[in-house]
Amino acid sequence: MVEGGKSGATPLEGDGKRILLILGTPKADGFCHALAEAYAQGARSRDQVVRVLKLGELHFDPVLRGGYERSQELEPDLLDAQRQLHWAQHLTLVYPIWWGGLPALLQGFFDRVFLPGFAFRYHRPQDREPEPLLGGRSADLLVSHDQAHWRYRLRQDAPAHRQMVRCILGPCGIRTRHLEEFSPLRNSSEEQRQAWLKRARQLGAQR
């Protein structure tokens, strides 16, 4: 299994790239877990340092109760997540698409963690664009869903992809280097899933 419950690291951290792998599903197991494990194996084969955040094992309220107008105390797991984000040079997010969008837990994680003053900030009320505070980092997105690629991208306009790349990571200064879809997952064969896991390992080894 992937190392770490809430956050885990290899026993010895050398000079490899620092990768934070965020598993953005509330499920305790499933294909996203296998993708995350394969990616981590590939990265560690190239002496990269991988830490893992499994959002389904964190303890936090995913609802931003008062929006950004009211302070909401961060739980210990979220404070740790912010430390891990500052540590990381590269992020790898592995998550499913449900109802065309991000799982509620993953959306709640961004709402609670990527806060003004941490991930971005506005200097003046009239500023149209925020100053990104997490610049210098890159990201890989490994995404599973049950739609054919063409249907999700052409008929549905890929809303989760646009949100993640353009509305969440980009404004915070994180450049998406690769977005890989593993779909349609439903009714996929064991041969197809093994090929996808091989591809995840390849992506990890490329970083």
Automatic annotation (TrEMBL):
InterPro entries: Flavodoxin_fold, Flavoprotein-like_sf, NAD(P)H_dehydrogenase_qn. GO terms for cellular component: cytosol. Residues 17-202 form the Flavodoxin-like fold domain. One of its GO terms (molecular function) is NAD(P)H dehydrogenase (quinone) activity. The keyword GTP-binding does not apply. It comes from the Bacteria. Keywords: Oxidoreductase. The keyword tRNA processing does not apply. Belongs to the NAD(P)H dehydrogenase (quinone) family. This is Putative NADPH-quinone reductase (Modulator of drug activity B). The lineage of its organism: Bacteria, Pseudomonadati, Pseudomonadota, Gammaproteobacteria, Pseudomonadales.
